[in-house]
Design brief:
This protein has 70 residues and is an all-alpha fold. It has one domain. It is rod-shaped and about 65 Å long. It starts with a helix and ends with a helix. 7% of the residues are buried. It comes from Heterodermia speciosa. It holds the Pfam family Grg1. InterPro entries: Glc-repressible_Grg1 (IPR020100).
Amino acid sequence: MADALKNIGNTVSDYANSASETVQGKGAEASKEANKSVAKSDEASLGDRASAGKDAISDKVDQTSHEAKS
């Protein structure tokens, strides 16, 4: 009985971790898309565009990492 409860607890924990990784991956994806928009904007300064481009790359790495864990 104790093993069964432990397995249920592990399963619930695994699902919670997967859900958390999915949410974090979606957040990174949204941030990436926002940064891509700034990087492509003619209204943003060159420095802001470069920074946004760098941040978009970092967000893509985060997104990929979270998606692999979910």
